[in-house]
Amino acid sequence: MERFDQIKPLWLRGSGGQERSCTQSCAAYDELLRFFEESSDLLCIADFHGQYKRLNPAWQRALGWTLEELRARPFLDFVHPDDRMVTRTEMDRLASGAATVAFENRYRCEDGSEKWLQWIASPLPGRQEIYAIARDVTRQKRLEREIIDTMDFERERMARELHDGLCQNLAGIAALSASLARRLDPLSGAQAESAREIGKLLGQTMRQARDLARGFDPLHLEVVGLATALADFCTNTGALFEIVCKFEFKKGPPPMDAQREIHLYRIAQEAVNNAITHGRARHIDVSLSSSNGQGILAIQDDGIGIPEPSERSQGSGLNTMAYRSRLLGAELTLQRRLPQGTVVTCVFPQPLAILSIRPCASKLNKNSSAAKNPDSHRR
After folding, report:
1. Which of 65, 220, 288, 369 is the most exposed place for a label (fewest CB within 10 A)?
2. Could you tell me what percent of the chain has a pLDDT over 70?
3. Residues 266 and 373 in one domain
């Protein structure tokens, strides 16, 4: 293995093939070497076979492995097992000539901990080499997770307030309305009918509040699984907003741990809410599928369409979806749909299936369209 400082680069030649003076060349090369050695970012050169060829000292400071240890093994050995598949996919893209921007994966440290790295990389196909810069974004990922955890905690609090507060108050008022209707019935049929109508409207409001509470805090997700929870969400959303909101389950990914499923549920929820609130969509399709070892969550609508990237404002909803997708090691894309509408796609690595007992999802497709009779699906 040749050392970095033993290589005489081509840029030592001047324009027109004229040789620079030895002093100028050596000074420029020393500056490059110093930049490589002193950089706090993790700089490296790797080959297309997944082997590091050169690394700067920042790697050892960040991960604890010596540079010799890192060069001695394929770099996938140091990648977190859950991120190896998506890393291989990114390597294939680089080998085909595409550059990498803001790709993230986790690396195992020598002490057993792990760190998140964010990558910028460019291939040099003629030399079968990849030139890359990685940055430790572990602290940023920790802050993102804290933001998500805080948001989820607030959602849970709102769900409890709705269920234990508002719903109980509405139930009490509905009981009083029913009692009033019974007392008025012998005296005034019209007034009794009005009281019964009030009770009916209160009952509908209670069901809507319970559906909102379930949306804020999908506790049933851990029991029924992601596919069934998404089907319920689409049915309730269609009934609540009087739109068509369908869910399709196409040979979906295997069961995942609850935290991953909650992140995917929230991504779908945020995309649907954006389609209704900002896109003014009247028809929304949500699908969950898998292909080539990856899960695919897709949400498409017939709304006015998402603005072009240059005109797009990064609201909290889009940021939250991006945070959650990064926590999953997923790729999130938002595109305009022709002739109109938006398509949101989240492609995520599938973990090994975990053992769990979940209801069968084979009947989801016929149960998940926006209900014409919303009360038939509510508990």
Report:
1. 220
2. 79
3. yes
Whether residues 45 and 128 share a domain: the answer is yes
Q: Domain ends where: 154, 183, 217?
A: 217
pLDDT in tens, 20-40: 556 666 766 677 788 888 899
**What pLDDT, on a 0 to 100 scale, did the predictor assign at position 294?**
86
Question: Residue 262 burial by CB count (10 A; 0-12/13-18/19+): exposed, middle or buried?
Answer: buried
Number of domains present in the structure of the chain: 3
Assess whether pLDDT exceeds 60 at residue 19: no
Asked whether residue 44 falls in the same domain as residue 169, the answer is: no
Per DSSP bridges, beta strands 244-250 and 42-47 are: unpaired
Q: Work out the angle at residue 171's Cα, subtended by the Cα atoms of residues 210 and 208, and round it to the nearest 5 degrees.
A: 25
Of 119, 26, 117, whose CA–CA distance to 79 is shortest? 117
Residue 337 has pLDDT above 80, yes or no: yes
Q: What is the CATH number of the domain that holds 94?
A: 3.30.450.20
CA neighbours within 13 Å on the CB side: how many for 357? 0
Question: Which three-class secondary structure state does DSSP give residue 202?
Answer: helix
Q: What is the CATH number of the domain that holds 377?
A: 3.30.565.10
Query: Which pLDDT belongs to residue 358?
Result: 45
Q: Is residue 29 part of a domain?
A: no
Per mean pLDDT, which range of 6-15, 194-203, 271-280 is the poorest? 6-15
Whose CA is closest to 345, among 330, 367, 327? 330
> Do the Cβ atoms of 299 and 248 come closer than 8 Å?
no
- Point out the domain boundary residue: 185, 217, 249: 217
Q: Chain centroid to CA 239: how far?
A: 26
Q: What's the CA gap between 57 and 36, in Å, rounded?
A: 9
User: Side chain identity at 310, as an amino acid letter?
Assistant: S
Contacts by residues 53-59 (CB-CB < 8 Å, ≥ 24 positions apart):
53/1, 53/129, 54/4
pLDDT at residue number 170: 78
- My answer on whether 79 and 184 are in the same domain is no
Domain of residue 341, residue span: 225-379
Q: The tokens of 227 are what? A: 């596919």
pTM above the 0.90 mark? no
